[in-house]
Input
Amino acid sequence: MSLSIRYHYFKQIAIIMAILWTLANILFFTFQIKNENKNIINTRILQTQTATKEAAHLLDWSFNQKIKYPNAQSNLSYSLSYLLEKINKNKNIDLSVNSFFYKDELEAMTQRRAKTIKKMQQTKQEHHSVISGKHNSTYVYTITPLLATKSCLLCHIHDDAKEGDVIGSVEAKMLVPSFKDLNQKRYYNLILIYIMTWIVGLIVIYWINHNSKKYLNAKMKDYEENIYLLTDMMERRDTYTAGHSRRVAHYATEIAKVMNLSKENVALLFRASMLHDLGKIEIPDAILLKPDRLSTAEYELIKTHALFSAELLSHGPFKELSTIVLHHHERFDGQGYPHGLKGKHIPLLSQIIAVADAFDAITTNRAYKSARSKRDALKILEQEKGKQFNPDIVDAALPVLETIKIDTLTRQLPENKLDEMRFCYYLKDQLTGCYNINHLKVLLTKFTEYQSLNAYHLTLKNLTAYNKRYGWKKGDRLLKDLAALLMQHYPTSTIIRFFGDHFLIVNIDQNTILDTTLFDTFLNGYDVEITSNYIDFLKDNINNTDKLENMIFNQS
Output
């Protein structure tokens, strides 16, 4: 998983944790309030049960007293009932003593109360229920049966009843306040506690997320530094490849933005583009720096750079780039390498790099070819839609690349002495130490950039006869001495040996005068002579070595 995606996931996790923490606090607060309200109801039930039981016992006691003291007032039970109602009223309990309930009375009651009374009559036991009243009020309703005893039967109050029958009931109803109404101070303290707990939790989540971001930022910084270190390594190996990678990265990310790819994918594409040619560090200099078209065998070898790149990136933080880099030379029609993938089977980011890569290759100077115009490059991309490139990507790329500023000074040339030594195999003549025809090819790739480009063409006459007469070693010594003489007397010119016995004193944006007397002194004692002629490359439109060769041999 990429660091940018991890960063995104950490952010999402922090948000989810904050939401869950908020929901948990709301849930626990709601649960606690519900429990508090439930405890209030249970307390009210207990209070009404106690009141009804006490009333029932007192009524039973009054009947016993009436039997013991027959001369007492006859309305004792009535006075007691009235007294009980008054006493419980002070406790906020509506208590009443009732005789047997008849069917029509039950029908007039609320359904919940009537149901509770019926249960009491059937079971001859105490029952309670919670009843909703007006204005969202809640009441606890408790009913305790009054059973016929010997005392009440002897009083002839219920002559038709038998012992144990329900002859009446004690009812108690009590308003149940909410937890907020009952204890406002505790209610608001509880809210404050939960708010503080919630805030502390959010602070902890923020701290965790903040430190995770710091950690990922540090990892990302290391990651970016590693990319630029690898790029620097490529640049030291091949300055063209490094500059090419930076340009491709720029072109590719601009195309991706137009295609509305996510920020994460644009960042991923940039890194992959920067390192898409990393595998070229395993390609020998003899092939990588060759200033000429590659042979079939050489091309097959350089094609392996995609595999090398993927292998080098297949571990650690660069693993996510491996697949993208591996397939950046696949073709939309399936004729690419290394696996010949076709169409949608090629990773999208790889296809974007392929377009950017080709555009840069067309518009920059190489040792074996001159850069083509932006217009030509766009035309080639259009022609290759559905063949080499994904048509949708080309359609997105064309307007973007049309506005891109091309670096016309880009070329594959030695930038320093070390580069020059590495290019020596292809650009220097192995015998004399001066430049060879390959260097001339490189110079001619910049043909249109010169204000003047001219040369003196020197030909050693009779060199073949000299070699036969004195031997090849002396002939080689003659060529070395002549090259040394030319490089010493024309230090600002470029000395090139080609076709064995031909030399060019090339002048770029400058003019020199050929001193022929120098050759007379030098050739004293040699059975050879030097002829010379002047060549104006710009005037004669000699922009490649084939034209130069034709001109030289036609003159001879």
Q: What stands out?
A: Strands lie at 93-99, 127-132, 138-147, 166-175, 453-461, 494-498, 502-508, 529-536. The mean pLDDT is 84. Residues 432 and 479 are 7 Å apart (CA to CA). The first helix runs from residue 3 to 68.
